[in-house]
């Protein structure tokens, strides 16, 4: 009978042991949600979404290539010595009475062909000619009466005249009124009220500008050659042999309607993306497909493929639904690939329509679209450029295999003006560390991804050693992101932005023994490969 208490004790303690084993398993299971490759990726920027600064020669063959969609011009009447302005910013007359040009004095081009344009004003209306021949900015969409020809003076392309749809030229007869009634004749002199001097104050060189600048036929040739030559199989071989584990591939929304995307975009980028997956599989690299340019444009930069800087993304349910369809298309096409690691839902959202509610609605729907095709792919949810990334923590943390994406540049903000190399390095070590720590949860919900960084800064005359230290500190700090990081970008005419150049010239050194690492968030113990497919067996101990 004395056995009974002993038995009870054994049962109880086994129960306790079993419970703690269960707890441990649960902890591991939670960690399992965070099982992951620690990604070290490079973005294939400038390949399937055009950015002129990455490869300026792409635009060389466009006639009047300084007059592309979104180019912002100001016009000074030489006779009045005043700038044209859209009175009230738009919705009223065009006047010629401004001494200093600013927003109301700036006109954005919509290019019809190399000499023919619409002019969009500050308030988004288009310049046109009313029935009395007065020049006004009242049309909300451009038609024939909003279509003008820019006639440049031979040998002085900043001196222009503007031919109205009625065949006559605009003139600033007085400061208060601009009319379309000057004859063809001109001596281009400073007394001619139909002559204007232009200032070009901004321009864009994105996919829209390239395609519309060349026109469909020529754009197709130029881009197909670019897609075939800018990134090739040998780049994938180089990437794999450098110790990188993945490529992040920016794509534009029009890829989902390949081979016949809406004007002016041209088909063929899907074939290039298919090739990328084939090469990734061959060289055992992961792929993060990144929706970089969403319908309507989610930021005003050329990499959103905006026409003129306007950013309409997120303003309607239809627009969000269309974006979800693009994600659905990409997930369904590549779900079967052993290289599909992640789908990134929307690069650098900044548009006014990207409010927290519309963005989270889109992320939820985009997540579901990915999950309809794959249970294992990660879903990357980029932070808004204008907001603190922690705003998405609670939201993203509710999804399995969700990744919060932050971009860390020591650029694009005047807080970096005048910092020395050491101060920049310190900023990464301290400030970026704490930024990253603030969004990184130990349980990996969500995982964190420094989806863009670069070893470039505003420091003048930095030495190679400075760049090496800067690249290294970023690898060290961003290596703590629980999903990983991606360098922006593989190739660029500006050398520090080219990881290819930086690696080949010894500015960036990656420890290749760390490639395709799998690490547990708890203790560095090796975990199952995230996507359930063979990986190299290296373990990264952070
Ligand atoms: C540009 O378009 C206008 C209006 O459609 C047309 O009259 C003109 O001939 C075109 N010019 C060129 C160079 O194609
Ligand atoms: C970096 O963080 C320090 C405090 O940790 C702060 O004083 C400093 O202003 C921050 N630097 C920038 C440029 O934000």
TrEMBL record:
Keywords: Glycosidase, Hydrolase, Signal. Residues 523-542 are annotated as: Disordered. It holds the Pfam family Cellulase. Residues 64-199 form the DUF7910 domain. InterPro entries: Actin-crosslinking (IPR008999), DUF7910 (IPR057232), Fascin (IPR010431), GH (IPR017853), Glyco_hydro_5 (IPR001547). One of its GO terms (molecular function) is actin filament binding. This is Uncharacterized protein. It comes from Panicum hallii var. hallii.
């Amino acid at each position: 009978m004395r056995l009974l208490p002993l038995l009870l004790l054994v049962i109880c303690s086994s129960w306790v042991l079993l419970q703690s084993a269960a707890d441990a398993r649960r902890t591991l299971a939670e960690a399992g949600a965070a099982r992951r490759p620690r990604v070290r990726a490079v973005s294939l920027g400038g390949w399937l979404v055009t950015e002129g600064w990455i490869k300026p020669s792409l635009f060389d063959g466009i006639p009047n290539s300084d007059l592309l969609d979104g180019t912002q011009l100001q016009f000074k009447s030489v006779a009045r010595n005043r700038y044209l302005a859209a009175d009230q910013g738009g919705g009223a007359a065009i006047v010629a009475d401004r001494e200093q040009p600013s927003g109301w004095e700036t006109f954005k081009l919509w290019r019809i062909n190399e000499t023919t344009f619409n002019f969009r004003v500050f308030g988004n209306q288009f310049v046109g000619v009313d029935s009395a021949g007065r020049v006004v900015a009242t049309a909300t969409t451009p038609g024939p009466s909003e279509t003008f020809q820019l006639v440049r003076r031979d040998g002085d392309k900043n001196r222009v005249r503007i031919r109205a749809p009625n065949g006559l030229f605009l003139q600033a007869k007085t400061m208060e009124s601009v009319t379309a009634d000057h004859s063809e004749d001109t001596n281009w002199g400073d007394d001619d009220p139909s002559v204007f001097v232009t200032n070009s104050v901004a321009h864009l060189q994105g996919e829209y500008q390239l395609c519309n600048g060349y026109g469909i036929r020529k754009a197709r040739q130029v881009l197909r050659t670019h897609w075939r030559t800018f990134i090739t199989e040998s780049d994938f071989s180089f990437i794999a042999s450098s110790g990188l584990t993945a490529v992040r591939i920016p794509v534009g929304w029009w890829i989902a309607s390949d081979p016949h995307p809406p004007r002016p975009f041209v088909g063929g980028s899907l074939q290039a993306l298919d090739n990328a997956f084939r090469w990734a599989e061959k060289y055992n690299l992961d792929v993060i497909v990144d929706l970089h340019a969403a319908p309507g444009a989610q930021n005003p930069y050329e990499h959103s493929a905006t026409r003129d800087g306007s950013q309409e993304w997120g303003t309607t349910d239809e627009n969000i639904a269309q974006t979800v369809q693009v994600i659905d298309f990409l997930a369904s096409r590549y779900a079967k690939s052993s290289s599909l690691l992640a789908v990134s839902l929307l690069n650098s959202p900044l548009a006014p329509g990207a409010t927290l509610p519309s963005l989270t609605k889109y992320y939820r729907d985009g997540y579901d679209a990915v999950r309809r095709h794959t249970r294992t792919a990660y879903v990357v949810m980029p932070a808004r450029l204008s907001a603190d990334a922690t705003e998405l923590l609670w939201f993203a943390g509710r999804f399995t295999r969700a990744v919060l994406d932050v971009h860390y540049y020591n650029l694009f903000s005047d807080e970096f003006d005048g910092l020395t190399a050491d101060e920049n390095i310190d900023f990464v070590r301290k400030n970026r560390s704490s930024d990253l720590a603030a969004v990184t949860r130990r349980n990996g919900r969500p995982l964190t991804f420094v989806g863009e960084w670069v070893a470039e800064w505003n420091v003048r005359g930095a030495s190679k050693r400075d760049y090496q230290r800067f690249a290294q500190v970023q690898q060290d700090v961003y290596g703590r992101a629980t999903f990983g990081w991606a360098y922006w970008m593989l190739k660029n005419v500006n050398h520090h932005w080219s990881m290819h150049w930086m690696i080949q010239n010894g500015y960036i050194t990656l420890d290749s023994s760390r490639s395709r690492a799998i690490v547990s968030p708890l203790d560095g113990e090796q975990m199952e490969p995230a996507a359930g497919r063979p990986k190299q067996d290296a373990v990264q101990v952070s």
